[in-house]
Amino acid sequence: MVKLRLKRAGKKRAAFYRIVASDSRVKRDGEYIELVGTYNPINGEVNLQNEIALKWLKNGAQPTDTVRSILSKNGIMKELHDYKIALPKDKESAPKKESKSVKKPATAKTATKSTAAKPATAKTATKSTAAKPATAKTATKSTAAKPATAKTATSKTKKEDK
């Protein structure tokens, strides 16, 4: 979901914000899609690009509480409201398209459910066979330890020869 929110900039204790359109999953000061405007809380100065802000709001971007109040003070939320009021009149005058819906028979759904249960039993069978090779691995590990001890014994004999 796209949000219109503030991105912090400026020095420590001298905050300055950019009003940006960004993905809601991105960090506050992370990357953004588009710059909408700026906000300086120290002197209350706001610079907005009205067309860009309206574009994002019309496309469904959700403003945060602070950005919503900034947009309201600049009259952008009223413009959006007026746009939404005028929009349904256009929809009523346009001819309605008939939706074609194809219903599937109920028997087809039950058949797919029964076939879906069969692979699940096959998976459990493969899980039980997967345990057998694991025991073979542990057997090879125990035999691998024996040659290591033989190497240490041969190295001791070489030291004794010197």
UniProtKB/TrEMBL annotation:
Residues 86-162 are annotated as: Disordered. The keyword Ribonucleoprotein applies. HAMAP family: Ribosomal_bS16. One of its GO terms (cellular component) is small ribosomal subunit. It comes from the Bacteria. Pfam families: Ribosomal_S16. It comes from Spiroplasma litorale. Residues 86-101 have a biased composition (Basic and acidic residues). PANTHER family: 30S RIBOSOMAL PROTEIN S16 (PTHR12919), SMALL RIBOSOMAL SUBUNIT PROTEIN BS16M (PTHR12919:SF20). GO terms for biological process: translation. The keyword Heme does not apply. One of its GO terms (molecular function) is structural constituent of ribosome. The lineage of its organism: Bacteria, Bacillati, Mycoplasmatota, Mollicutes, Entomoplasmatales. PROSITE patterns: RIBOSOMAL_S16. Belongs to the bacterial ribosomal protein bS16 family. Keywords: Ribonucleoprotein, Ribosomal protein. This is Small ribosomal subunit protein bS16. Residues 104-155 have a biased composition (Low complexity).
